[in-house]
Each structure stands twice: as structure tokens, then as C-alpha cells.
Amino acid sequence: MGAASSSLALESEGGSGSSPSRPSLDDVPESCVSSIFMYMDPPEICKLARLNKAFHGASLADFVWETKLPSNYKFLVEKVLGQSPESLSKKEIYARLCRPNCFDNGTKQVWLDKSSGKICVAVSYKALRITGIDDRRYWNHVSSEESRFNTIAYLQQIWWFEVGGELEFEFPAGTYSLFFKLQLGKTSKKLGRRTCNVDRVHGWDIKPVRFQLSTSTGQQASSECYLHQQGNWGHYHAGDFVVDSTNTAPLKLRFSMMQIDCTHTKGGVCFDSVLVCPSEFREKLKQF
């Protein structure tokens, strides 16, 4: 009698001798997962989205990805992607902006850093004013796999070296740095190996190159240095500027580099582009 009673009790609790099922990740509400994702980096969100349907669904929530997008994402979608921000999900906007996106007839590129969502902009030499650029006695246009624009300018020899340009762009609040991407020597490939001819490099050790930067908000910066990166690309720092959170209008940058001492010629340098990126990215410039 007693044994029968205990058997009935077990059956009424969910089966003969079976223990209650334990909670699993599948039991976590999608809304809770989305709330947690708001405090995580995009690469971490994408990894966790593979766990199950709830995590995948949570990873698609617009309010999650809106916290990762820069404050000017609507400007970027309209200017760079050429679409309405309302026509795309926030995750799709983030994914598409993380790729290099060309604008202004392919002479400029903008992209987001995948981990932080911060903006980087590159300006091809083709969008700049360069003394003698159309004269083949001085400059050559060279195809290059090492340029994000697939073409670089190679200076053979010149007396008056001067480059100037402008960029009008809506930057999110933050501190940014502007660099000129240059290399002493001309790169080529022989038997599949990268080589760099530095025979024509001259004149850069006599006088320094002067770099200048100014903004439409009145900020100014300048620097001088000798070009020294033989055989490898170097990023030469022109200056920094700050974008205030109250400034919502596009910012206009003016920048230049020059070595105009006509007592000697200078040559053998490759010029790729100008880079604008958050100042905190200076340690990983080789990625650009």
C-alpha cells in the first residue's frame, strides 16, 4: 500500500522517477537578450547570434544596432549609399557602412571600424591639387594593389612640390587626425615577390616637408618632418581637429603638404591618399 502511494506521487510530479528539466539558453526571452546586446561590441553580437533562434532574433533588433551606429548615419546612408535610412534595417546599415564605400566619383571612401563603429575617410590623390600632376616629365599614374583606390601617383623629379585639398564632411563628435600616405621608392613585383626601387629617391633629406591643416571652425595645425619611409608606406601626421557634439553642420577641412625650396630637386616618392580617422587609431595605421 505504501509503495503504491509513493509510486502515484511520483507519477503526479511528471513521470516515474524523472527529474524536472533544467533551464537552458533557449528559455531566455528574446527581449532580454536584445537588452544585453546593447552593451556588447558588434563582433560579439554576431558570434552570439549563432547560438539559437532567440539570440539570432535578438541580434536583428533595430534598437540594438542604432546604439552602434554613428550619430551621422542618416547622412552617410543618403550621401554614400544613396538610399533612404528608413528603407534599411539598422543592422544592414551597419554592415554596409563597414565596407569601403566610394563617393564623389570614386575619389573618396568612407567606412566604419567594425568593432567601434567609428568613421574613417580616405581621399585619393586624384581629388587633390598637385603641382605638375598632368605633366609626365614629373608625375606618373601607376596601378597598384597597395592602394584602396587602385592607383597611386609617382613623382620622378620636381623643383616645387606642393599638394593641397579640401574635404567637406559631417563627422560625429570626437577627436580626429589627418595623415598623408606616402612611400619613398617605387614598388613592383618580381617572381611574385614585392620589391621597391629607391634609386630615384632624392632631396627629401635636405629640407623637411611642411604639412598644414585648418577647419571651417577656426582650428589650425601644422607640422614638419623629413620623409624617411623607404620601401614601405608611411602615414605622415598633418594635425588633429575636434568635432563638438553641438556642431551638426558638415565640417570643411583644408590641408596641404609642401617642400618648395627650389635650391634642389626632389623625387622618387609615391603618393596614395589622405586619411582622416579617430586619433585613437594612430596605433593601427598599417591597416589603412
From TrEMBL:
The UniProt entry, under PROSITE patterns, shows: FBOX (PS50181)
For the region Disordered, give the residue spans: 1-27
Q: Name one Pfam family in it.
A: PP2
Query: Which residue ranges have biased composition labelled Low complexity?
Result: 1-23
Domain F-box positions: 22-68
Q: What is this protein called?
A: F-box domain-containing protein
